[in-house]
Amino acid sequence: MERVHRKPTIALVIRPFQEFAEKETSGGILLFLATVVAIAWANSPWSSAYFTLWGTKFTIGLGEVALSKPLLLWINEGLMTLFFLVVGLEIKRELLAGELASPKQSALPIAAALGGMLVPAGIYIALNAGGPGARGWGIPMATDIAFSLGVMALLGNRVPFSLKVFLTAFAIVDDIGGVLVIALFYTREISWIALAGGAAFLLFLLLMNWAGVQRLLPYGVLGIGLWLAFLESGIHATISGVLLAMTIPSRARLVPGEFLSKSRAILAEFEHAAEEDILTNENRQAAIRALERACALSEAPMQRLEHTLHPWVTFGILPLFALANAGVTLAGDLSSSLLQPVSLGVILGLVLGKQIGVTLFAWLAVRTGLATRPTGATWGQIYAVGWLGGIGFTMSLFIASLAFGDTQLLDLAKVGIFTASLIAGVGGWLLLRFLSPPPQPLLRNA
To answer: Which single residue of 73, 124, 262, 397 could bond 69 by disulfide (Cβ 3.0 to 4.6 Å)?
Structure first.
């Protein structure tokens, strides 16, 4: 009897992660294609059209109240807020019921992420301290979860499942660090009046959560107000997405027992209804609608919102972000560009810093008894995951745009990000393939 109860439970835990990994893998392909198109476009005879497009003003307003910004800023400060909203929902899920839910579970990914942020930033600072590129120290701290999971997925079942969970968890902790870095160090002059308005919106959102409001529409309306307040406050507007995520309810109205009893009663009514076509049977139509409502009430608003937004972010917003931000002119001596302090700091930070920081801090956490090594994973495989952590891309590009704006330093940072991500991705894949032998087929009895 005990096994019968365990198998469904394990399946329910693993299935969301598998769906998540599959979506990230597909999204990684789109990110790569969008990057190739952006670089090709920016270096083509039509390059002026590329840069003119993203600088075009786009206005939303009613009457005299209007918000007018270049298209690039609408993407980076508007659409990317939805990306950070999904990141916030993933962080919240991991803190409540995932790999970060207990100190023992979270110790290893937290230690790995901490090393993967401090060592790369230290390498970058060592090469750029006191120079014009010093502000970019946060660029090599990031890990792109879409690309890193996509590279790992290419190896299929050669890689232990526990290693995929470890990569996902430490990348999410890395996202937490990235959000904090953006909020604390990459802000303009703060408008305290706008920030007070943002605090008021956040308070109302928390009160709605406390009052048990489950409908997502009110959270969306107040979330827009929160975003506008942060847009005017000087703190980057995307941070409002993470704060909004923290206010979305994580509890469903129907607990599993109530859902089972309610759905069984509804299905019994459906079964005992007259055997007619559903289109003409009102009792069966009512039963189907009741079952739909029961399903909706059994899913937490947090889960519902994440499942709704995730495809839009993965297959729409992130590729559009890459298309708008990855375009860099490669004219001139490329080798000289790679040896500039900014690009070299990014490359060494992401490629060397990540592998050293992730492996060293993870080893120290296990050695001191704070954490345990992932089941079935070797230290060589963890080292290879450290290489994959050097795929910075999305977050690195985002922080680079905040650090350098529209300057030549941004182009140098982009060259460093692309080069480092390519080296880290190929190196991590080769190492994992070499260190992860294919599973042995089961021998059949003669």
So the answer is: 73
